[in-house]
Specification:
Helix content: 25-40%
EC number: 1.5.3.24
Strand order of the largest sheet: 4-5-3-12-13-14-11-15
Bound molecules: flavin-adenine dinucleotide
Catalytic activity: sarcosine + O2 + H2O = formaldehyde + glycine + H2O2; sarcosine + (6S)-5,6,7,8-tetrahydrofolate + O2 = (6R)-5,10-methylene-5,6,7,8-tetrahydrofolate + glycine + H2O2
Number of domains: 2
CATH superfamily of the largest domain: FAD/NAD(P)-binding domain
Largest sheet: 8 strands, mixed
CATH class of the largest domain: Alpha Beta
Subcellular location: Cytoplasm
Cofactor: FMN; FAD
Oligomer: single chain
Mean pLDDT: 96
Low-confidence stretches: none
Organism: Lutibaculum baratangense AMV1
């Protein structure tokens, strides 16, 4: 793998940038693999990378029906935080946050990680009490979290209006300083490059159309580029998780919904951190290009189209104007949608199934980006050893039969 460095950049600059090679190898599928990962998003590529790097399983193929990162990984608003309420969630999201911290160096790829802090605003006493409780729970789990009163919120993020005479006054906020944003494409490309260098095949424009089983065990996948034999299939297909599971007769309590986001025209630095508000129901951050990156809730109906409807955008915009009236004349530049797979308890499913060799990592809903490295790390471990590790264990599909849910609707909050 070509090493990237400042010296290399200068050298290439002087030579007209003619020496850069392909970031990952293009591959035609082989007849068989030890593991086939379906889905070339961040989670799938991270899974393949950790399978190769940690478990030494390099005979792996990642199959992507479009282009890598063309699903939710390339469509999300990249908010990263780990301040969830329950121990199980804190463990997996904080594991991810720790991995994010060194990921750019590990992958030798600039993922533009920015730990600029995430604010969750409270607009009434009830909300403030709930958020303070979450701060305490976070601290017990080693998650960095603090409570800011309104004056401290203003100091941290001057654009926020803390007057008392507005419809949704800001009473305070939680702050996770290590939270922030990064660059989604870079993460996907960084994982693809590192996985490919370790021997993983990445096959794009290839759809899995069926999964073959014999005597209750996986034997291979049918694809638009032919049949591939494998004893292990790892499905990491976000909005299509239940479609994959149906191919082997596994039923999941998952619903697929559109989730939209949009960006404004670029402006001077205005929003120094990530601002989220449950009550008003919108969140925003500012990209390095100066655009405000804005998101809110899912469209209520089920759909597999990667677009949503106007009323959500209208709601999103009125919420943003409520929160930051100063942006009311900004023009919006682009809008897009993804398909998110939501679980009843707003927590993911990382599980083996009744079909031997068929594993699922999905149900991350509106908030899986932040988990990408932790999810790939834990899932690779499950696929390699056929046993969930401590971090993944609470997220098996069995919890929907036992009732041992990880109910994170409060912390999952405004979709992100
Ligand atoms: C608008 C929006 C905003 C979001 N904002 C945030 C945020 O701020 N923070 C956060 O933490 N999360 C956020 N999310 C959620 C986050 O994007 C996802 O949870 C996460 O990216 C899922 O990653 P993934 O790799 O599992 O899925 P994806 O990136 O969707 O990858 C799955 C891949 O599987 C492929 N696939 C599907 N079916 C097949 C098949 N039959 N054969 C081959 N390939 C197949 C798809 O083409 C796709 O590329 C947001 C999502 C959206 C849509």
């Amino acid at each position: 793998m070509d090493r990237y460095s400042a010296i290399r950049l200068i050298r290439e600059g002087l030579n007209g940038h003619k020496g850069w090679g392909r970031i990952w190898r293009g591959a035609t599928p082989k007849a068989s693999y030890d593991v086939v990962v379906i889905g070339g998003g961040g989670h799938g590529l991270a899974t393949a990378y950790y399978l190769a790097k940690i478990h030494g399983i390099t005979n792996v193929c990642v199959i992507e029906k479009g282009w890598i990162g063309g699903g939710n990984s390339g469509r999300n608003t990249t908010i990263i935080r780990s301040n969830y309420l329950f121990d199980a969630s804190a463990a997996i999201y904080n594991h991810a946050l720790e991995l994010w911290k060194g990921l750019g160096r590990e992958l030798n790829f600039n993922i533009m990680m920015s730990h600029r802090g995430v604010l969750n605003l409270a607009h009434d006493e009830h909300e403030a009490r709930g958020l303070k409780r979450r701060v305490e729970a976070n601290r017990l789990n080693g998650v960095d979290a603090e409570w800011l009163d309104a004056k401290q919120v203003k100091e941290f993020c001057p654009v926020i209006n803390i007057s008392h005479d507005i419809r949704y006054p800001v009473l305070g906020a939680t702050l996770q300083r290590s939270g922030g944003v990064n660059r989604h494409d870079a993460v996907v490309w960084g994982y693809a490059r590192a996985a490919s260098a370790l021997g993983v095949d990445i096959v794009e424009q290839c759809e899995v159309t069926d999964i073959r089983t014999e005597a209750g065990a996986v034997t291979g996948v049918e694809t638009t580029k032919g049949f591939i034999r494998t004893p292990k299939v790892a499905s990491v297909t976000a909005g299509h998780t239940s479609v994959m599971a149906k191919m082997v007769g596994v039923k999941l309590p998952i619903e697929s919904h559109p989730l939209q986001a949009l960006v404004s025209e670029p402006i001077k630095p205005l929003v120094p951190c990530v601002i989220m508000s449950n009550a008003v129901h919108v969140y925003c951050s500012q990209s390095d290009k100066g655009e405000l990156v804005i998101g809110a809730g899912i469209d209520a109906y089920n759909s597999y189209t990667q677009r949503g409807s106007m009323d959500i955008i209208e709601h999103q915009m009125s919420s943003l104007c409520e929160l930051l009236p100063v942006v009311s004349r900004l023009r919006m530049m682009r809008q897009w949608g993804g398909i998110v797979d939501t679980c009843p308890d707003a927590s993911p499913i990382i599980t083996k199934t009744k079909v031997k060799g068929f594993y699922i990592n999905g149900g991350w809903g509106t908030g899986g980006w932040k988990a990408t490295p932790g999810s790939g790390h834990a899932f690779a471990d499950l696929v390699a050893r056929d046993e969930p590790n401590a971090i993944a264990a609470p997220f098996t599909v069995d919890r929907f039969y036992s009732g041992d849910l990880v109910a994170e609707h409060g912390a999952a909050a405004v979709a992100h």
